[in-house]
Amino acid sequence: CLDGVHDWIGWTGIYRSSWIEQVPAVHLTGIHAETRIHPASATLRLDLMLPPNTVPVEASCRITDATGRSVFTGAHTVNSKRAGGAVDLHIPMPGAALWSPDTPALYRAAISVRHAGHVVDTAQIRFGLREITARGRQVLLNGTPIFLRGGCDDHVYPHTLCPPADTTFFRDRIRKAKAYGFNYTKSCVDTFTREFLEAADELGYLVCQEMPFGLVPPHQRNLRFNPPPSFEALCKRELANIIRFERNHPCVVIYSMSSELDARWLKNRRCFRLFSQDLPRMARRLHPRTLVFDCTGESGSGTINTPTPVRTRLGPRDTDLQSAAFWKTGEDYCPLAAPYLTAGCISLPFVFHEYSWITCLSDPALIRRYRGLPMKPLFIPEMISAARANGTYRLLPRMLASSRGLKHALRKDALEQARRDPAVAGYHHWLIQDFPFCAEGVFNDFWELPGDITAAEFRMYNADTVLLLEDNNRRSFTWGAPLPIAIRIAHHGTTPLRDATVQWTLHAGNRRIAAGSSRLPGVIDGGSVAMTSDLGIHLSPGGIPARLVLAASLTAAGAFINRNRWNLWAFPHAP
């Protein structure tokens, strides 16, 4: 069977309503809306069950907008039974609104099938018009470069274990994620439910579906590297089932065939062919309007999560995107994008895998929240017991606050590092939600808003357009010396920035040391990076050791775009 995070948690079986439906001899077996934006149109692929001697059959469609107003129609008469009973209704949609995170326009198609003068079957689907493509090292949504700010969603539900069959539940979560600047999410080798996808469609939240093809060791995780024919058949069958289930949802823009394949991936021809060639080709055939990872978190070079070239000794990988976390064996973590990108290993849009893996202490107060729930707060009781045993229990609140402050600072730096290089197309931030034993999320185990960082603060470095500090990897300076820094702008908005101006101030406590503004000439297009000149700050001599705060804000055509701030440090000159 398939395995993923759901299997770790330990639930199975039917968890939602199910039904048996009686159908007539002539009936619909499937509908797929394949959309285009140039020109705007939808081709509805209808799969029909047509027993012998049932033609002619007429299929018609009425498309309504969000208000229920009928806007487009189409019809087709089947006069001869074709292989599989497939019928294509091509419906031009001039002037139709496009679906995006900012404007998630949705349409509803009502299909009717008539035979012998009677309506014999009806069905409805909801869809949106959008285009996702890769160009060079950029991902484009509807022709505009987009930075994929993804939070890894590992499907943790303390109250229910299984995902609630409730669209309202997921609307609440997605609204919180978008408020904190996320426009995208990735599963952890598990499938998203219908309710999640419906909420993501409605709110404009991009989705990467990572296939649940082997995660739990030792059986299937190792089975992937020398897959027997039965495992290959299972993967192909379930890939088709999952894509057919999801492909009318405009939010689903990326499929990943596998996760965290190590060096064995490039040593076994069957493994490589399955995940890097056969499954990607199937995905493209079943849903051609999406992008494909052959593997997220690739690590085929032999070290941990370092990128693998697209052209390998076993042949080319059929992938649109590349992904790794840039950890290296024997070294401390640091963003290592630039050396690999300049070395030519990355040739396609690159997305960090499980990026910013930064944790803090779990909140000991959560243990009360878990009472009576089917999920248990793993390791929180052990932490409390250890603190009592070594006499630090009363210090836990201070230790928690300090560890959270460090987590926020390190995460801010990591996400800003990812935006510095225009060759990076996005990240899968680890995590969007804490686990009891893994407090690495933005929200806690129960998806509650963090009390120590607001949505506005988080969006300073997790938004379409962000301000970055160009500090030459230096944050400590000397009183009486120049402070050689500039401001970089990474812009991925849908509208170019014109007349962009950066205003900044430098404070030591309540005392303002310097202030100024820098105008960026020309136009900053989406997907580009611009930078001010050196801010020209010179620290006066004679100061004592102090924390300095540099705050900057960006306006374009007089409108506020974003802001950011950074801590710097100044010390007296050491003789």
What does this structure look like?
With 575 residues, this protein is α/β, with parallel strands linked by helices. It is 21% helix and 33% strand. It has eleven helices and 30 strands. An eight-stranded parallel beta sheet has the order 15-14-13-12-11-20-19-18, covered by helices on one side. It has a five-stranded mixed beta sheet with strand order 22-30-29-25-26, with no helix packed on it. α6 links the parallel β14 (252-256) and β15. α2 crosses α3 (194-203) and α5 runs parallel beside α6 (269-286). The radius of gyration is 26 Å and the shape is globular. Mean pLDDT is 90; it is low at 327-337.
Cα Rg:
26 Å
Query: How far is the N terminus from the C terminus?
Result: 69 Å
Structural class: alpha/beta
| Widest sheet, order of strands | 15-14-13-12-11-20-19-18
* Fraction in beta strands: 25-35%
Helix content: 10-25%
Mean pLDDT: 90
Poorly predicted parts: 327-337
> Shape from CA axes?
globular
Number of helices: 11
The biggest sheet amounts to: 8 strands, parallel
Number of strands: 30
